[in-house]
Amino acid sequence: NCSPGLVVCIAGQAGNARHDMIGMHWVHAAEVLLNCWPVFNRFVALQPVVHLVDRIRLNNAPWVRALRALMGCRLTNVPPTTCAVKAKIVRRRRDGWPGQETQWLTDRGDADMLKFLLRRMDHQQVASNQSAPALQVGVLTRTVRGLGDGPNIFAALQKALPDAEVNITTFDHMKFPQQAGWVNRHDIIVCPHGAQNLNFLFVRHCAVVLEVYPHKYYIP
Fold first, then answer.
1. Which residues on adjacent β-strands are paired with residue 74?
2. How many Å separate Cα 34 from the centre of its chain?
3. How far apart are CA 179 and CA 196, in angstroms?
4. d(CA 148, CA 141)
5. Are 8 and 51 in contact (CB under 8 A)?
6. pLDDT digits (tens, 9 = 90+) for 45-62
């Protein structure tokens, strides 16, 4: 028996992400961290550690570093020798159809805690779930593979919702808190499929997201 000081998440596999994608693509690196977050969130008094095994190399993009800082976790390739609570990510392939979605978190409470931590870190970016006076509608596009019809979508929304505040933007020059904050401020979001949508972790309750896929893009 011992008194644990650490909670260790052993990460060798994560969801549907391949080893090379975890190192190359920041979204799949974030998937590893988010798979660990539910166990960290249940042992909040312990220091969170992600133990990378099977030669896993985590992408170190700014978004990933910011998420690690928000979670307060450290990475290691060496098994901790001190007393610890341990959990291991289990790889389960799912095809994405209804009922077979890949889950990165256990429940809504895990996402709510991340929003709480970000609000505490940068209270100006992520507000509470209180709604703004007017309906907030956002069109989020991308420089590469963005919404080809974005301006027309923006104009149509302004015409259909004259009392709403409608804006269009990209995340090209926004840092982690600004991206999360933009998502959190909107009641309706229209966006293309892509990595930027990982920020939907911070969407407000009851918000509506319309994700636009490329022509003939389908599951699986």
1. 49
2. 8
3. 8
4. 9
5. yes
6. 999 999 998 888 888 999
The reported pLDDT for the residue numbered 149 is 83
DSSP-assigned letters across all residues of 172-213 = TT--HHHHHHHHHT-SEEEEESSGGGGGGGGPPTT-EEEEEP
How far is 209 from 186, CA to CA, in rounded Å?
Answer: 10
Residue with tokens 């389908």: 218
Burial 169-204 (b: 16+ CB within 10 A, else e): ebbeeeebbbbbbbbbbbbbbbbbebebbbbbbbbb
Identify each DSSP E strand in 30-156 by its residue range: 47-52, 74-76, 84-88, 136-140
Task: Give me the count of residues in the chain.
Answer: 220
Predicted model pTM? 0.85
Segment 111-156, tens digit of pLDDT: 999 999 988 876 555 555 555 678 999 999 988 888 888 888 989 9
- Phi, then psi, of 88 in degrees rounded to 5: -125, 135
Q: How far apart are CA 25 and CA 117, in angstroms?
A: 25
Token pair 């302004």 in the structure block, residue: 158
Other C-beta atoms closer than 10 Å to the C-beta of 14 total 25
- The set of residues, in sequence order, having a beta carbon less than 8 Å from that of 216 and lying 6+ positions away, is none
How far is 74 from 8, CA to CA, in rounded Å? 10
